[in-house]
Design brief:
This protein is of the alpha/beta class and 180 residues long. The chain has six helices and seven strands. Strands 3-2-4-5-1-6-7 form a seven-stranded mixed β-sheet, with helices on both faces.
């Protein structure tokens, strides 16, 4: 069994391989695993993406919990022998904005939930701040909030890995032996 620290953050661009890498990290622990899914399927493209992710996990013994707004609730119900993959913080933030939820309150609840988690948690998130400045206010707000969320997650995490073109780059901490 290769164990992970209490909180790991895997960050990268869209389709960078961050989810696949995160799943491999979780599988290597040989712990009972829960996938907390935050995405909502509002269109055919997103339904396909969700279906593809579900197919990738179908034979690996995952328990899937869909929670679009309060992922800490699924985390707090796990036992100390478990491990949780929260995929992803970016979709969760999008859900909060679209539902007009209090961002500061929800960031604080997620942070507390991760700090008090009974088991290791791996959080997947997108890096969205490396492109051009969006032309509309909503997109700029989202980009700013995503950057803040990522910084807060990275500060609390013992392990932070950026995935670029499928290649993991450790930014903080150390990968467990055998997972490099």
């Amino acid at each position: 069994m290769r164990d992970l620290p209490a909180l790991s953050l895997v960050i990268g661009g869209a389709s960078s391989g961050k989810s696949r890498f995160s799943e491999a990290l979780v599988l290597a622990t040989n712990r009972p695993r829960t996938y907390v899914a935050t995405a909502q399927a509002f269109d055919a493209e997103m339904r396909k993406k969700i279906s593809d992710h579900q197919s990738d996990r179908s034979e690996a013994g995952w328990t899937t919990v869909e929670d679009h707004l309060t992922p800490w609730k699924a985390i707090e119900t796990r036992g100390p022998q478990d491990i949780v993959l929260l995929d992803c913080a970016t979709m969760w933030l999008n859900n909060l904005i679209m539902a007009e939820k209090d961002i500061d309150d929800n960031f604080a609840r997620l942070s507390a939930g991760l700090r008090n988690a009974p088991c290791p948690v791996v959080v997947v998130s997108n890096e969205v701040g490396m492109g051009i400045v969006p032309e509309n206010a909503l997109a700029r707000r989202f980009r700013q909030l995503q950057g803040r969320l990522n910084a807060e997650l990275a500060q609390d995490a013992d392990l932070v890995v950026q995935v670029i073109a499928g290649l993991p780059q450790v930014l903080k901490g150390q990968l467990p032996k055998g997972t490099e």
